[in-house]
Design goal:
24% of the residues lie in helices and 25% in strands. By secondary structure, the protein is an alpha+beta fold. The chain is globular, with a radius of gyration of 23 Å.
């Protein structure tokens, strides 16, 4: 991935313009974007504790691919495509499970936990078969602070390298010791995947569209952008909210001794390139990724994690957190659905982008670096993606 980008320090000649509307609706552009942006990117699958024992597995499905993350008998966590090498049958169903071997439900080809093909019924019936040449197709895997990521193909910075500017802020939360408190939930959205991420990093809409966050943060909400990760943050206000759940959270959020005083009432948000986010609270962390399913559709994949804490006040604080953010999510859904509708209007090309919108500027710059046609405010003639690429 890195070799496809222009130097990130280069001046973006289109920096004062947002990405144009056609990038959010055009099928030809969508196909190019999936190849150059999503396939070579890291995607979170689960926490390492969710594949703690040999045979434990988790799956993730996107871009027509299904990936298995599984712990082997040697305790190594590996990633494979969920595809039998015989007739392409899917080996496992569902988001998680545990198995001694991966047995294809079509013709009973059998694979070990490390992906080796170990059993084939009627093996002598396959003149060209070599077991050692038919192991499950591997995918890149990385474990960063206890979370397991996979990448379908390509090169580029590791998750650790991308998150490095904020590693010192994240370290006190003890991600490695966290456990899942809310399993994977998927929600379909009738929007282009970029609209979800754009909204996540958009600072200017907070005081306009999120009354609850404005009450909680006052004027403390701030954003900044590093090359591969955006950071948003807000300190809980001491001014008591009139909303009952916000007020309860303000008053009853218990102290967590592993965090410094500066983080006891701090809400942190990190958006990792290109489509993942971590929401860090003193009481828990929420994870979200927005997986493209089409030019104008995506799926939100969400999980929540926390350190073990059986205090009654902590359980109530987490519930109050959920009630607060349920309202925020509904407000954001209303916004992005209407932005998506506007992106389809022939009247919209590209909008001016503010100097303070540093996160949106950073994301747009990387998209334009990967796909130069994204600089055009109007869609080029059909077939543009099949013509030879110009050297940038």
């Amino acid at each position: 991935m890195a070799r496809r980008f222009a130097d990130l320090s280069d001046i973006d000649r289109d920096a004062d313009w947002s990405l144009p509307g056609w990038l959010y609706t055009d099928p030809e552009y969508y196909a190019v974007e999936m190849e150059r942006v999503i396939r070579p990117s890291w995607q979170i699958v689960c926490h390492e504790s969710q594949v703690a024992q040999p045979g434990d597995f988790h799956t993730i499905d996107y871009l027509g691919e299904s990936v298995i993350v599984m712990r082997g008998d040697d305790s190594v966590v590996r990633g494979f495509t969920n595809v039998c090498r015989h007739r392409a049958m899917r080996l496992v169903e569902g988001p998680a499970g545990c198995t001694k071997k991966l047995v294809c439900p079509y013709h009973a080809w059998t694979y070990e936990k490390d992906g080796r093909l170990s059993g084939v019924p009627m093996r002598g019936d396959y003149p060209a078969l070599r077991l050692e040449d038919n192991e499950l197709a591997p995918v890149d895997i990385e474990i960063w602070r206890g979370f397991v990521f996979v990448r379908l193909e390509g090169e580029g910075p590791s998750v650790a390298a991308m998150m490095a500017p904020y590693d010192h802020e994240i370290a006190p939360y003890r991600f490695e010791e966290m456990r899942c408190i809310s399993p994977v939930r998927e929600r379909s959205r009738a929007v282009n995947w970029k609209n979800v991420g754009d909204n996540y990093s958009d600072n200017l809409h907070i005081p306009v569209a999120h009354d609850g966050l404005t009450r909680l943060f006052g004027k403390s909400y701030a954003i900044e952008a590093q090359p591969w990760v955006d950071k948003m943050s807000g300190q809980l206000s001491d001014h008591v909210s009139g909303n009952p759940w916000e007020r309860f959270y303000q008053r009853h959020l218990p102290r967590v001794d592993h965090l410094p005083d500066t983080h006891q009432r701090l809400w942190l948000y990190y958006k990792l390139w290109p489509n993942m986010a971590f929401d860090l609270y003193a009481d828990q962390i929420d994870f979200m990724q927005w997986l493209p399913t089409g030019p104008t559709t995506c799926v939100l994949r969400e999980m929540a994690f926390a350190l073990p804490d059986d205090r009654r006040e902590m359980k109530l604080a987490r519930y109050a957190n959920w009630r607060i953010n349920r309202v925020v999510n509904a407000e954001d859904t209303w916004l992005i659905e209407r932005v998506q509708q506007g992106m389809a209007s022939r009247s919209y090309e590209a909008g001016p982008i503010g100097a303070s919108e540093v996160c949106l500027r950073s994301f747009a710059k990387k998209i334009r670096g990967l796909i130069p046609e994204a600089r055009q405010h109007r869609a080029p003639a059909p077939g543009w993606s099949r013509r030879p690429r110009e050297v940038q």
